[in-house]
């Protein structure tokens, strides 16, 4: 893009129109930033390519993580042997609390059992040039075991190469020789005792190592089971498929999908086994309770059985007549009721002892239904006690700190224990009343029995004792058989709905997202750099910057000159810079319209902003229009304007103001027609005081008799007060602002002088414009709309204001 400044840009507004310094006052010119971005597009492209390269490296060498999912269903529990008192599902099943299953699934023992089953404590890695990746083969025949009861060297690793089916080599192995340890490598055979970092392990080969795994270097790493279990506890996710559903969705992510699939399969198997064991726990406790009772009565039953057989051998009378048979049958019915009371007595004794022992686990209690006792009150209270026990365990898992709700639950559980013990005492009293009624009926029948002959009495008594214990034994054996059948027929409530499988491609790294993120970073860095440059650049760069800093109007703009000679209007009359000075000459007419004789003062904030250059060329363009022009070098501290005209500074303004010479003696004629020079002259000790003398005004009045225009080149306004003194003589003051040179603070300071009335009739000339484009306010076409034009060729021509224009 061409940065050449266009001197006729319409960007410089009609000086008759006001501007505001407050409109659009912002720190950053985003149009200018955009222009810089477009101009230096290659920087943006380079940083974007570098950022995309970083994204490629990350995508290429990041470990890919794959998602693995499975679904299981927890069926409704239909067990009657105490199971309904172990679970109380608030969702859909009255016998099972599915909320608790979340804690069971994430429990350390369950996950650890799957980890140990799969031998995840030993892992292999293939070493690459940049990263190592895990090698997992579920059918790999090599197994590592510690010697005897010792542990594997958890947290350690070593290099390994399988040489053949019988030998392997270990690298980076700690070898002990003559009491000293050193790192080295050594070949071992399968079955040898291998020392690894102070531990002794044995490598077993239970099959054939694949040919592709031989003679390759692997890193074998020994992982602590607790650490691996903790990792899987963290990454295993379990969520209900939907509210009210008994289907659980299991998922976990890992770098080796086959390994995660095997884990989920084994985990589900262990979960099913845990469920079966948990359901069989009640049956096992019931069988144990019944076995204890059977052991207590088996000897007595055997004793009465022998007495009955002995009686039959020694006596001929073993049959009962009608009366004896009636009494015997009645006694047997009464004693069958006594069997029930005896079982109740034994169960209540067991339950009282169980509840009083705080070390007993509530999920191991034998329920009354399992031994044939239909006691709804005790059963419901036990069910509530078991539910409280489950809730307490859940609170303990969630919150290790003291919890007031947990304490309330414990107190409620203790109160319920007391209530159950109290109910047992009441039930025993009721049972005692019923037993006493049975005993009264027994005594009545026994009195009737005494009326029978002696042998029949003895036979009936022996048979009664035997039948009573036989009935009790048979009842208990029946209940034991029922519990054993229930245990043998138990199936898991956990059923696989969707087996473990890979659920799509890798979830990390997210290649597209990484490319997008780094592309944005690659764009943000250079753009941010340009914004920061713009934010911290305190130099005036555009007309808009001037308008933001001041309410002083901008009269025009001068492009960058390529020649070292300051007489560019004279040397290059057709150049763009020369045209911009002609435009400046026309614009000045708006500020001094109606005056024939005019004084223009050129000043700036600091040196180096182009005052001398502007003064010379403005005077030149006025002289070339055919008007007599006097150029006064009023910078008596640093006189230099005479050099550009190849004139001398032996005498000048300082001599005139000090009364040492007359006007005619100090004015020099230049090579430019109609242009004369009054240089600064020798440097005086008091320039400001000289300018303040009335002779300065008198000299200007005298000069107007000869000249149409007087152009005064003054010192910088921020350095000395000379410009303030001279401004009262000027019809218009031109304040110079140089692109990328003048500080914004200098323009703000000039605006303050203007608003306070210290300098009047002032406008700003934007000088040395090199940058053009959006944000700089240039390059939008020719012409100001003032109704004038320029022609080139021989001769002279009047413009729209009566000035003669040089061709």
Automatic annotation (TrEMBL):
Domain of life: Bacteria
EC number: 2.7.10.2
Gene3D superfamilies the record matches: P-loop containing nucleotide triphosphate hydrolases (3.40.50.300)
Tyrosine-protein kinase G-rich domain boundaries: 455-532
Annotated spans, Disordered: 1-21
EC main group: transferase
Gene Ontology cellular component terms for the protein in this record: plasma membrane
InterPro entries: AAA_dom, Bact_polysacc_biosynth/exp, GNVR, P-loop_NTPase, Wzc-like_C
GO terms of molecular function: ATP binding; identical protein binding; non-membrane spanning protein tyrosine kinase activity
Annotated transmembrane regions: 40-58, 515-536
Sequence ranges assigned to domain AAA in this UniProt record: 607-722
CDD domains given in the database record: BY-kinase
UniProt catalytic activity: L-tyrosyl-[protein] + ATP = O-phospho-L-tyrosyl-[protein] + ADP + H(+)
UniProt keyword list: ATP-binding, Kinase, Membrane, Nucleotide-binding, Transferase, Transmembrane, Transmembrane helix, Tyrosine-protein kinase
PANTHER family: FERRIC ENTEROBACTIN TRANSPORT PROTEIN FEPE (PTHR32309:SF13), TYROSINE-PROTEIN KINASE (PTHR32309)
Family: Belongs to the etk/wzc family. Belongs to the CpsD/CapB family.
Name used for this protein in its record: non-specific protein-tyrosine kinase
Record organism: Marivirga salinarum
Phylogenetic placement of the source organism: Bacteria, Pseudomonadati, Bacteroidota, Cytophagia, Cytophagales
